[in-house]
Every structure is written in C-alpha cells, then in structure tokens.
C-alpha cells in the first residue's frame, strides 16, 4: 500500500473546476496523520496566501509570485470586505465555502472559479508579460481609478477582469482640455481573443495608450512582445 495524492473522479468536464478546488484544498490543508477524507473546514488566510502563490507559480511556470498588494486585493475579494487593513486580514481564517461554494457578490461564480480562470489565462497567453512584471493583475477597479486619476493622459495599466472569468483588461486615463481626468476600462480580452492577436500587438494598436504606469513608454515596456507579423498568439 502507498498513500497517493488526492484524487477526484468526475463524469463531465464541467466538474473539472470543482475537482481542482477539492484537490488543492485537500493537498494543501490536510494533516498527514488524519482520518481519511477529513480536512479542515477553515484555514488561516496567511496559509491560503501561500497556497495560492505556490499554485500560481507552478501553473504559470514563473519565478515571479504574488506580492503583498495582490494578497490584499484577494482578501478583499474573498471576504467581501473593503474597509479592513492588510494587517486585519492576517488574523482571519477563510472557509471552504468562501473559497469555492459561495458566489461572489454581484457575480455568477465563486472565488476559486475566478482565480482558476486567471491562472488559465496567464498560463496560456500572459506568462511572459507577468514574468516581466508588466501586469499588475490583482487590483480593484476602484484602486486603479485612484492611481491613474492624477496621471498624464494615456497612462495605463493591466488588471484581471472582476466581472468575467479569465479576462484581462486595460485601464487608461483620458484627460480633458479642462484638466479633468476620466479612467476608462477597455472590454476584457479572453484567451480566445489573445490567441487571435497577442496582448502586445493589441497594446501597440491602441493609440490612446502611451505610458505604462507609472511612466514607462509603452514601446519600451512592450516592444519585445510586439509581433512582426499580423495576428498570432504570443
């Protein structure tokens, strides 16, 4: 006899996401000498952060992991709490229900379904951009507005979509003649979109984008990701 890693048997591809969540939770949080199939219902948020980071780096195959500000955004998302400080979240625990049972407020999916969509998109289309730290990714639309509102016209950054699973969007500032600013979010790009035309080429196409936040000219930031031929994924 030998102990194996967790196994989940599914009968349809639409169960794959839940199966991966079950395996991840069991593999990360079960005790070695446990009673079979018994696993904690709640785990410390800090331990969850470590798990998400290891999963992200392994899936994307990158050495650039999640940062403190990414964990803060993820905590706000999973706990639905935008008033707590990063320190407040450190002492909290997260439940299996919050991870992969409860639907996120105003959405049609769970936290894990959303995070797994980000994993898949980054692995398939955005690995080199993430590894070059060109994507902020895990940041709220509200905080993006705060960052960009004082920046020059055409300043932009990339964030993972809140409203869609597996989408990356570009937020950019438009400054009027009167000096007023407006931050716009371009319709998210899916893996299918980026397989038709890469993210770098799409950024090159969009004339309203000038500098990657805070102040790097877009050609300098993304030039190595431009395709010499039309179309084609990265």
UniProtKB/TrEMBL annotation:
GO BP? cell surface receptor signaling pathway
Cell compartment(s), UniProt: Cytoplasm; Nucleus
Instruction: Name the UniProt key words of this record, in alphabetical order.
Output: Activator, Cytoplasm, DNA-binding, Nucleus, Phosphoprotein, SH2 domain, Transcription, Transcription regulation
Instruction: Name the SUPFAM superfamilies for this protein.
Output: p53-like transcription factors, SH2 domain
Q: What GO molecular function annotations does the UniProt record carry, in alphabetical order?
A: DNA binding; DNA-binding transcription factor activity
Chief site of localization: cytoplasm
> Which InterPro entries has this protein been placed in?
p53-like_TF_DNA-bd_sf, SH2, SH2_dom_sf, STAT, STAT_linker
Q: What SMART domains does this protein map onto?
A: SH2 (SM00252)
The answer to keyword GTP-binding applying to this record is: no
One GO cellular-component annotation of the UniProt record comes to:
cytoplasm
Top-level taxon in the UniProt lineage: Eukaryota
Give the SH2 domain ranges. Answer: 114-224
Question: Is Endoplasmic reticulum found in the keyword set?
Answer: no
Alphabetized Pfam families for the sequence: SH2, STAT_linker
Question: Which PANTHER family does this entry report, sorted A to Z?
Answer: SIGNAL TRANSDUCER AND ACTIVATOR OF TRANSCRIPTION
Question: What family is reported?
Answer: Belongs to the transcription factor STAT family.
Q: What is the designated name of this protein?
A: STAT6 protein
List the gene name: Stat6_3
């Amino acid at each position: 006899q030998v102990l194996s890693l967790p196994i989940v048997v599914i009968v349809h591809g639409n169960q794959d996401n839940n199966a991966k969540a079950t395996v991840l939770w069991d593999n990360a949080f079960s005790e070695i000498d446990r009673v079979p199939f018994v696993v904690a219902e709640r785990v410390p948020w800090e331990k969850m952060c470590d798990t998400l980071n290891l999963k992200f780096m392994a899936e994307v195959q990158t050495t650039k992991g999640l940062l403190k500000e990414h964990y803060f955004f993820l905590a706000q998302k999973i706990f639905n709490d935008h008033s707590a400080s990063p320190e407040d979240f450190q002492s909290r625990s997260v439940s299996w229900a919050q991870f992969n049972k409860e639907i996120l407020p105003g959405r049609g999916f769970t936290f894990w379904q959303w995070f797994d969509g980000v994993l898949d998109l980054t692995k398939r289309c955005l690995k080199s951009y993430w590894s070059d730290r060109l994507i902020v990714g895990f940041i709220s639309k509200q905080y993006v507005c705060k960052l960009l509102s004082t920046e020059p016209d055409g300043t932009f950054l990339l964030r993972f979509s809140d409203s869609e699973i597996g989408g990356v969007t570009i937020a950019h500032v438009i400054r009027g003649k009167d000096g007023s600013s407006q931050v716009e979010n371009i319709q998210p790009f899916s893996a299918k979109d980026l397989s038709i035309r890469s993210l770098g080429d799409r950024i090159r196409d969009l004339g309203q984008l000038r500098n990657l936040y805070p102040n790097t000219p877009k050609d300098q930031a993304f030039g190595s990701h431009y395709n010499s031929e039309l179309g084609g994924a990265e």
